[in-house]
Write a structure and sequence with these properties.
Blueprint: H1 2-16, H2 21-31, H3 37-52, H4 54-64, H5 72-87, H6 92-105, H7 112-133, H8 137-141, H9 145-154, H10 159-165, E1 172-176, H11 183-192, E2 197-199, E3 204-207, E4 224-226, H12 233-237, E5 245-248, H13 255-263, E6 267-272, H14 275-288, E7 293-296, E8 311-317, H15 331-335, H16 340-355, E9 359-369, H17 378-387, E10 391-394, E11 405-406, E12 415-422
Length: 425
């Protein structure tokens, strides 16, 4: 427990310093190559869980401190330890003992008494401390106050459910490659492996409890992919057919690229500004046994990579705040700032305007984000329609809300979709 507690605290401290949790953990894996898979999993669980419930944990810690704690490493250790004591089955005496040892290892021997006193006081006063912490919006919902206020304004009848669902553990959802099988057959294969699962539709399966991809039958042969159910709408909305010329304009890591190619034989071009992430698209397509033209490039500057031939379908899965997938990346809640959204909105508008000339007359463009903030979604789609008279908004069908906004539920993450057809010349 010592190593996992210490390294999870280190990851949290890195996030408090402004780094993403993904980058923080990557640095730990590089610095500690001897860690076993079980240890890595435990470190991830502690760091993700502590950030998911950070508002509540901070509310408890504030009550236990007699004065502000300015040492971020020690603060991170206490928050991770409080998470262990309240949300895990770890033996309390072990959590406290190891936390005291970690504080010494951090070079903060003077913090041993503080760590010991705070954690033992929590165990004695747990219910009263938790009740008091939940009296504040930040403590109750474990989101920043500005985020809570924005959700109340945007979704006055749903904001509490939105925030509660954003703190759930994300589901593990699979997409069955229809070229290699079907849902009933794959459910039977999972059952043979002792993996509980159920069908969500004709290609999506929700696994009852998270498992590694190495336990998924045929994963490395391309039989299935891991993809959120909400994200699986994108390829279907473009209603592709054999022979169409298709552009996936912000393709990495390639989940939607692969899904499009599973649905039809396409002349597909996948573009991404990050060459390293584009290699992940190549890896995913290789696993699925599929092919596409992969081009490094900025979707807002197609003149640098476009060959001048129009596309029948364009998927604009643009960069966004990723607020709809915050339960998969709980650091997002604490790293985002209210003024970030103006920058995202400007970037999204530039990409849409740059990509629209690439759509053939009669062709379609799908605008997609994994955000739940209207400034990136409905407002962006409306503004695009006003700028382009030849952009005809299309209905999304019965599987999606009329306004295109999928809010997080136990079954899927938060996404937004807006579909446009270009008027014939």
């Amino acid at each position: 427990m010592f190593a996992t507690q210490k390294l999870a605290s280190q990851a949290l401290a890195d996030v408090f310093a402004g780094h993403t949790l993904t980058d923080a953990l990557a640095r730990i894996w590089q610095a500690e190559p001897e860690l076993r898979p079980q240890q890595r999993g435990a470190i991830q669980d502690l760091s993700y869980g502590s950030l998911r419930h950070l508002g509540l944990l901070e509310g408890v810690l504030k009550q236990l401190l007699h004065k502000p704690l300015h040492e971020e490493a020690l603060r991170a250790l206490l928050l991770v330890s409080l998470y262990q004591l309240h949300f895990t089955r770890a033996a309390p005496y072990g959590v406290v003992d190891h936390a005291v040892k970690v504080s010494t290892h951090l070079g903060r021997g003077q913090g041993k008494g503080l760590v010991n006193a705070i954690l033992r006081n929590f165990l004695r006063q747990r219910e009263a401390l938790l009740t008091s912490a939940r009296d504040t919006p930040r403590g109750r919902w474990s989101h920043p106050d500005w985020w809570i206020a924005a959700m109340r304004e945007a979704y006055p009848d749903q904001w509490e459910t939105v925030l509660a669902n954003a703190n759930l553990h994300p589901p593990l959802t699979l997409r069955v490659n229809r070229h290699r099988g079907d849902v009933p057959t794959y459910l039977a294969r999972l059952a043979q492996e002792g993996i509980e699962a159920r069908a969500l539709d004709d290609t999506a399966i929700r696994v009852g409890h998270p498992v590694g991809v190495d336990r998924l039958p045929g994963f490395f042969d391309g039989d299935v992919s891991v993809q959120d159910w909400g994200a699986q709408h994108a390829a279907r909305l473009l209603d592709v057919a054999d022979g169409l010329r298709v552009l996936d304009a912000c393709a990495a890591p390639g989940g939607k690229t692969g899904h499009l190619l599973e649905l039809a034989k396409l002349d597909l071009t996948a573009v991404d500004a990050d060459a390293a992430r584009l290699r992940r698209v190549a890896d995913n397509l290789q696993r699925l046994g599929l092919g596409a033209t992969l081009l490094p490039g900025d979707a807002a500057q197609p003149e640098q990579w476009w060959d001048g031939k129009p596309f029948d379908r364009v998927l604009a899965d643009v960069p966004c705040s990723a607020t709809g997938v915050a339960r998969r990346h709980p650091d997002i809640k604490w790293l985002r700032r209210p003024d970030d959204f103006a920058g995202f909105a400007a970037q999204q508008a530039a990409m849409l305007d740059a990509l629209w000339p690439l759509v053939a007359p009669g062709g379609k463009l799908l605008y997609a984000t994994c955000s739940i903030f209207p400034a990136e979604n409905a407002q962006q789609a409306t503004a695009f329609s006003h700028r382009h008279a030849d952009a005809q908004p299309l209905p999304l069908g019965p599987a999606l809300p009329e306004n295109g906004q999928l809010l997080p539920t136990p079954e899927h993450d938060g996404f937004f979709y807006a579909l446009f057809r270009k008027a014939a010349a």
